[in-house]
Design goal:
Blueprint: E1 6-8, H1 9-21, H2 26-32, E2 46-48, H3 49-63, H4 84-89, H5 94-104, E3 113-118, E4 124-129, H6 132-135, H7 140-151, E5 159-163, H8 173-178, E6 184-185, E7 191-195, H9 209-226, H10 231-242, H11 250-256, H12 261-270, H13 275-291, H14 298-304, H15 310-321, H16 325-329
Parallel strand pairs: 5-6
Antiparallel strand pairs: 1-2, 3-4, 4-7, 5-7
Helix pairs in contact: 1-2, 9-10, 9-13, 10-13, 14-15
Length: 330
């Protein structure tokens, strides 16, 4: 089976830095894997996942380190994950951050569908969902790196356990260190991180609503170009860009996407959503972010969300949160 999915080349840049830290020439390793290391400097460049799998294997051989994937997240920079990094890190709570991560995750790699599920005990699972026949073609080191990259941004007490599709490694010590000594389950049905429910609504010190919103806009622009057939992303992007000029009209967005309104409605229904639902979700999300910025007036926020006046915004916000915008801000 041919694997045509792609991964951001800048993520491979973190691999190059880890190789350099191991005392190796990253350019030589990339050349052996058939990749041009110069591409890691292009923020929009992407490598095939099949090529990345080959790179991971060459790296393990060059370093003689089976747990090499765990070393890579330490060399991630603020721009490694394009604008998604800023959009996710600047969220107000971990729950908001995870929802945005799921929404934008295909920017980093479109080989997996990431989803967030709450368990029966109230804890939450962040799952990298990959078809088994596809997962078998992907380097275990890649998932080691992705899971550790996420966990390294959690507080130690927030992590409950970790699941790996990979087989049990011979040396567990690097994994115990990387995942805070929490329970680990190998040969699992999927790769997942389980987070304690108490962690989800903690206010994050890195919260910056303006940066989170700006990062998401840039990330959605990139994703829209990457996934031209994803109508939900197109509609969300159009809504966000048009809100400043008033409430977006379904007809205008259908025209922008070269669809009839009926075609647009059918495509959104096929994705279990609608234009009205997307408009409400985006307004709700942005409203909470804007209200966290105490320098912005309620009137200004109302206009930025496409409402004709403050009273209409206040009524809508009360439906969403059960309190007025002013009460929510306090």
């Amino acid at each position: 089976m041919e694997l045509r999915s792609t991964t951001l080349a800048s993520w491979a840049g973190a691999i190059a830095e880890s190789l350099r830290d191991h005392g190796l020439d990253p350019a030589a390793v990339f050349t052996e894997a058939g990749l041009d290391i110069k591409q890691t400097l292009d923020p929009d460049a992407r490598f095939l996942v099949s090529d990345m799998t080959r790179l991971w294997k060459v790296c393990v051989k060059a370093t003689n380190e089976p747990s090499f994937g765990l070393s890579v997240p330490a060399f991630r920079s603020a721009t490694t994950f394009h604008a998604m990094g800023m959009a996710v890190d600047a969220c107000g709570t971990l729950h908001e951050s995870l929802k945005r991560l799921v929404k934008l995750s295909r920017l980093v790699s479109n080989v997996a569908d990431m989803r967030l599920e709450q368990q029966a005990n109230g804890d939450w699972s962040l799952i990298w969902s990959i078809e088994p026949d596809i997962r078998a073609l992907i380097a275990d080191e890649a998932l080691d790196a992705f899971l550790h990259s996420f966990v390294s941004r959690l507080n130690e007490e927030d992590l409950a356990e970790v699941h790996f599709v990979r087989q049990l490694p011979e040396d567990l010590a690097p994994y115990r260190k990387a995942f805070y000594g929490r329970p680990m389950h190998f040969e699992a049905k999927d790769d997942r991180v389980v987070i304690h429910k108490e962690a989800m609504d903690k206010v994050r010190q890195t919260s910056n609503p303006a940066l989170a919103s700006a990062g998401e806009s840039v990330a959605l622009d990139y994703l829209q170009k990457l996934e031209r057939d994803n109508v939900v992303l197109h509609v969300e992007n159009e809504i966000r860009h048009r809100l400043q000029s008033g409430e977006p009209k379904q007809q205008d967005i259908a025209d922008a996407l070269h669809l009839s309104v009926r075609q647009l409605q059918r495509k959104l229904a096929a994705n279990d959503t609608s234009f009205a639902q997307l408009l409400q979700e985006i307004r709700h999300q942005l409203a909470k972010e804007y209200l966290a910025d105490s320098t912005r007036s309620i009137v200004d926020i109302s206009l930025s969300l496409g409402f004709s006046d403050q009273s209409n915004f206040s009524a809508a916000f009360r439906r969403w949160e059960g309190v007025s915008p002013t009460e929510f801000r306090q």
